[in-house]
Amino acid sequence: MLRHEAGKIIAYVCVCIWTGNPVNDGVGMESAWNLVLALSLLCVSAICLASDGETEEFGAHVQSTYIWQHKPAIRSPYAGPFSLVQYAENTYTFSLTGAFGARLWQGGEAYFDPEITQGVPLSNLTGMGAFYNGEITRASGANPISYRVRMFVRQTWGMGGEQESLPSAMNQLAGTVDHDRLVLTAGFLPPQDIFDGNRYAHDPRSQFMNWCNMTHCAFDYAADARGNSWGVALELHRNDWVWRVGQFMQPKDPNQLPLDWQFFKHHGQNLEIEHAHQIGGQPGKLRLLAFRNTARTGSFADAMSSPGFAASNAAGIPATSQVRREGVKYGAGLNLEQAITPEVGLFARLFWQDGRFETYAFTEAHRSFSLGTAINGALWQRGQDTVGLALVRNALSGVYRQYLAAGGLGYFIGDGRISYADEQVLEAYYSLGVRPDLAVTLDYQYLRNPAYNADRGPVSIAGVRAHWEY
């Protein structure tokens, strides 16, 4: 009891230090050191509040991830403003995240996650659709920045059925819940916390690093440039089924941080249906996900019309930024996870979106497919290790191909011209469990036709990751 009370006091001090600092763009060195102090104290708090298997009233966790990657020089007969550069480059990201949770009342919980990040992307984060590091959107330079990554409440209403035990984890308090339940989540968080989960390919901090292996690459989910948004989601768990619906804020402008507070006019709406099953006695899940985004956005057809050309610039290069209007984007896809044995699992994702409008919140893909496997090291007496292998294929809509061929620029891609080919990625990793709370990963990615251009590349990216979580 005394240990837990001390943990609560330390966690409260952390929050006080954090709330006395900015949470938006950049921080000075003094503020940065204060935030490091706050998260260091959080580590102590997490130890004091460690769950002993009973219901948690208060929880605190912390994670830190460092990723370093290298790209050698590539073939580049020509380049545009948003091309991957020809010469060799290095990139890195660093994140330090705290996670506080408190039980408010029966079924009610509140969570708050502060985060510090820094990092430098390849080629100013341009030149491909299937980006190499799911952490890179959180970093914006060599100087550390701090921000609020989550601040939300969750209410769970039990509806009977067997009891499920939830372990203590980041943004999850230890306890038991009814198998059949209704869960309401509201606040500021990544929509991916709720939608498009996958046991084998979802978290770039511990699994595959490529964006297209953490979610559907063609899923242009509503979020700011870091992948977070204000919104609300409702989940109904019933027998082997889960139904999820949610609505989140769009950014004011494509892939920018400020959000559009016209929540009932501009938003992203998600619907997901999940079914749990068994094949050959092994568990699996199949998810159907659909989205509908409403925003003030530019269509590729409008940009290439005569008025669109005239409005763009004197050179007649089409630009979606000059022809934005109210528009609706939609898409749907399937997500499968399936255990083959207790040590071997397969996953696959397939997604389609209409591809008429510019990328607004995620990356440049209108059709996406991924297939892969994750193998636990228990097969060779290394139960804390994992081997992963995945293939990715992305495609663009016909109208976007015409737009790029005419010299148009997307948000992340634009070589000035294009010899179109689907973008293809092979990713392989080995995660070595050094300790239960520490893993070191070697990762390799091979990308053909970067930015959907057969004239450029291929690209090899080798990296190493260190991930610690308590």
> How do the helices and strands follow one another from N- to C-terminus?
HHEEEEEEEHEEEEHHEEEEHEEE
- Sheet-strand content, in percent, reads 35-45%
CATH topology name of the largest domain: Porin
Strand order of the largest sheet: 1-2-3-4-7-8-9-10-11-12-13-14-15-16-17-18
Kindly state the number of beta strands: 18
CATH superfamily of the largest domain: Carbohydrate-selective porin OprB
The CATH level-2 architecture of the largest domain is identified as Beta Barrel
CATH class of the largest domain: Mainly Beta
- Note the gap between the termini: 20 Å
Which spans of ≥5 residues are poorly predicted at pLDDT below 50?
A: 19-30
Major beta sheet, specifics? 16 strands, antiparallel, barrel
Shape summary: globular
Question: How would you classify the helix and strand content by structural class?
Answer: mainly beta
Structure report:
The protein has 470 residues and is mainly beta. It has helices at residues 2-19, 29-48, 211-214, 300-304, 306-312, 398-405; strands at 58-71, 89-105, 108-120, 141-158, 163-166, 175-178, 181-189, 229-238, 241-249, 267-279, 282-298, 324-339, 344-353, 367-376, 386-395, 423-435, 438-448, 459-469. It folds into two domains: 1-50; 56-469, Carbohydrate-selective porin OprB (Porin). The chain contains six helices and 18 strands. It has a 16-stranded antiparallel β-barrel with strand order 1-2-3-4-7-8-9-10-11-12-13-14-15-16-17-18. A two-stranded antiparallel sheet has the order 5-6. A hairpin with an 8-residue loop joins strand 5 and strand 6 (175-178). The two termini are 20 Å apart. Mean pLDDT is 89; it is low at 19-30.
